[in-house]
Amino acid sequence: MKINYFRNGVSKIAFLILALIFFTAGSNLHGTTHTVLVQDFSFSPANLNVSVGDTVRWQWVSGFHTTTCNGTFPGTSLPNGAAAWDSEISSGTSSFSYAVTVAGSYVYKCQPHAPDMGGTITASAGGGSVLLTENFSYPAGDSLGAHGWVSFSGGATNYLAVTSPGLVYSGYPLSNIGNATTVLTNGQDAYKNFTSPDSTGNLYVSFMINVSSIQAAGDYFTALLPPTSTTLYNARFYVRDTAGFRFGLSKSTAASGGIFYTQNTYSLNTTYLVVLKVKRNPGTADDEFSAFIFSSGIPSSEPVTPSIGPVTGTTTDNTIGRIALRQGSSANAGVEIVDGIQVSKNWSDFATSITNYENIVTDSYELYQNYPNPFNPATSIKFNIAEKGFVNLTVFDALGKEVQTLVNDSKESGLYTVRFNGNNLNSGMYFYRLTYSGSNGKTFTETKKLLLIK
Asked: CA 272, CA 419: separation in Å to the nearest integer?
């Protein structure tokens, strides 16, 4: 069956009525729901940073497990005043949800597979897990200063401006939205504040980048700042021509710990996804900084080994509250197009994952309703394909504009689940469409609706 909401011209009034019905029926209107996949023999992601008011939901994938955090089972602990939990996670009890009401650290285990299978939840007092989103959805030519950024050095030349087109990176939730900005070799620098400063747990900064020129000396073009500073740069990220195009990272200045470059070389005029990580080490004076650089796809969980780091140094650790874009010196700097910046507390806030349930044989083509629905901010979408073929799964807004491509690749026969994260989207009705094309000429298209409520 082929359903095409966009050509049939469903009225905006009908959309509003349907959205209102879903909205009033939704039970999670506040906070964020974080989904943990439970399978042999891991929780994924194993480490979460959440806020009080959020919900953690464990979803069964395979095996027989528990999620247990009661302070009595060995290895488990939870903050004073927090409710304990102990739930089976299996084919018979496929999910369990826990509302976080107390800040602090939670350490939980799977009883049958302890001590190796476990996870941690770090809950902050509030503020949400996404601290900044920037898609540069403004008219080309506008100054960034007209849209929440603050210029703070570089005189009056070459202000940072919105440039067109935006960047595209398949699977990244902020891909192909709005325009971009181009960081040149000299001129004004600018920063943008987070929704709230951050000083605990991990911090992830993800963005797309396309570098058009580099120089031998190299220079950094983006960094993090304390909420009241324009000089104490942390997580300085570089481009440099050193026997090929390489990315670099320093905790602060080169003198306080050094600059470390990738072993791999990269290509100019190619879009990459960069994830900078800040790992806080409580009780020490040396937070760690790492960089992950991807040329295709996004792992559903954080890789064990980063592209650069972990990098440390002698600089005093700071609360972080701003991201800066820096137009370096004309003698050293490169030219970079930057787009889709997100600052968040969890890897899962920007990762789109697809799971193939092997050993499940299917003879049908089917697109399932997403679950949960309504959702905030993430949901899962399942589909069946009976034979190997090319699969495209794309999410559209209510006006038919493409907002994210989840799958665009050849897939074997089987049942698949894709995670869709709507952190960067506004509340409202969206549609997802599955299109399949087989080598034997078989085609299949189906569209369903989903509702994001924040």
From this structure: 21
